[in-house]
Amino acid sequence: MAIDTSALDALREQARTRFTALVATHGGAVRNQRTDVDGEYPAPLWEALAQDGLIGAYIPVEYGGLGLGLRGMAVVLEELAAADAGDMVPILSTMVAAPLVRHGTDALKREILPSIARGERRLAFAVTERAAGSNVFAAETQAVRDGDSYVLSGQKHYISAVDLADAILILARTTPRGPDAPPGQDGSDMAGFSLFLVDRESRGLTWERLTLPRLRSVCQYAVDLRDVRVPASRRVGPEGAAVFAVLDALNVERILIPALVLGATTWLLRLAVAHVNERRVFGDVPLGRYQAVQHPLAEVFLRTRGLRHLLDESTASYDDGANAFEVSLPTAAARFIAAEVADAALNAGSDAFGSRGFEADIGLLGFAQMVRLFRSAPVNTPVLLNFVAEHHLGLPRAS
Ligand SMILES: Cc1cc2nc3c(=O)[nH]c(=O)nc-3n(C[C@H](O)[C@H](O)[C@H](O)COP(=O)(O)OP(=O)(O)OC[C@H]3O[C@@H](n4cnc5c(N)ncnc54)[C@H](O)[C@@H]3O)c2cc1C
């Protein structure tokens, strides 16, 4: 997919201007890293994303988006985070839109994608179950075909932003587990699963907030499905072969989270540099004069350059149509290095700020929470390494 780099440059400029103005106008209400602000999802943030179509940067032009691929969406997320307004909600909608674009029917795309691009519809993603945990394809939620519908039953756990979403992409088993399952579809591999786009207001679907700390305005939920009837037209991709669509969604998350980390690190560096240029504690010399203070910040800056290259490789691979397994190597590298970059930035930033860094309005504590989260979810680092060892090094599958 050819994407005009001048269009991406223009998008970056537009996003930077808009998000900088957003934070200047609304301050703590839209800032990401504040841990002392708790409340409703900030309407001005969503308006900024929806106006000018920024939320639809990834969505193809024929479905109402800007058609700038994941390259475009990564630019939007990076600039959002660089303005300290980084947010998971646009990532969730894009990671659901992506399997729709690649595997959905034209009718489903026409129904769903334009409303995402206009900011009228938000989406959530539900694969995780409490018992299955990292072993996504040990999920027990079932979908049973009944005429023109499927009937879904089961429980999903840790699902983000259900309260903000209009529909949820849900992974369910369409081939029953157990000894009677056809060979290769007994739960020991990834076959036998399907994906469904389920309206949040469907009869039989309920959700309950979990006790995880609110990440600004995004919370996690347990979702209960009791005989939820979903039209067969809402199945995304072929029955029993959801693995590629799921990996497409997870690859998008592994691209956009590094974009968010890159932007947030840029924000933190800017803040830390301004602080050490200002702060004087021993005589009339700014802290930034000491090499012991300069070097960790310079190292983080260099690491962000490496992360940008990995991000460029990942987005190009995805946008150019590489399949889910091909994309998985650059995205795994981007996600792994993003976690390292964020760790280094947290340490360098904390050292630069000292005690001041623990004051909630600075935002370092929120950054720390984000850094830790991205090591555990959506994919935890050990499981990412298992995948690389098995599929890219030819080592035995981890048990
Ligand atoms: C804030 C938040 C938001 C989330 N949002 C969503 C969402 O929107 N949608 C969704 O579907 N899910 C969501 N999740 C779920 C998340 O993706 C899962 O929690 C994650 O995939 C891992 O499952 P688990 O935490 O149950 O870890 P477990 O499976 O219990 O594993 C615990 C730890 O054991 C180690 N481990 C596990 N397996 C292996 C192995 N094979 N080899 C080596 N080490 C291993 C890892 O260190 C892992 O962190 C969210 C979770 C959080 C915390």
What can you see in these coordinates?
This protein has 399 residues and is an alpha+beta fold. The chain has three domains: 5-122, Acyl-CoA dehydrogenase/oxidase, N-terminal domain (Butyryl-Coa Dehydrogenase, subunit A, domain 1, Orthogonal Bundle), CATH 1.10.540; 124-240, Butyryl-CoA Dehydrogenase, subunit A, domain 2, CATH 2.40.110; 244-393, Butyryl-CoA Dehydrogenase, subunit A, domain 3, CATH 1.20.140. It contains ten helices and eight strands. The protein has helices spanning 5-26, 43-50, 69-82, 89-103, 106-117, 243-278, 291-319, 324-353, 364-376, 381-393, and strands spanning 123-126, 142-146, 149-160, 167-173, 193-199, 205-209, 220-231, 235-236. The chain has a four-stranded mixed β-sheet with strand order 1-4-5-8, with helices on one face. A four-stranded antiparallel β-sheet has the order 2-3-7-6, with no helix packed on it. Helix 4 (89-103) packs antiparallel against helix 5 (106-117), helix 4 (89-103) runs antiparallel to helix 6 (243-278) and helix 8 (324-353) packs antiparallel against helix 9 (364-376).
Keywords:
binds flavin-adenine dinucleotide, 8 strands, globular, 399 residues, 4-stranded antiparallel sheet, 4-stranded mixed sheet, Butyryl-Coa Dehydrogenase, subunit A, domain 1, Butyryl-CoA Dehydrogenase, subunit A, domain 2, alpha+beta, Butyryl-CoA Dehydrogenase, subunit A, domain 3, 10 helices, 3 domains
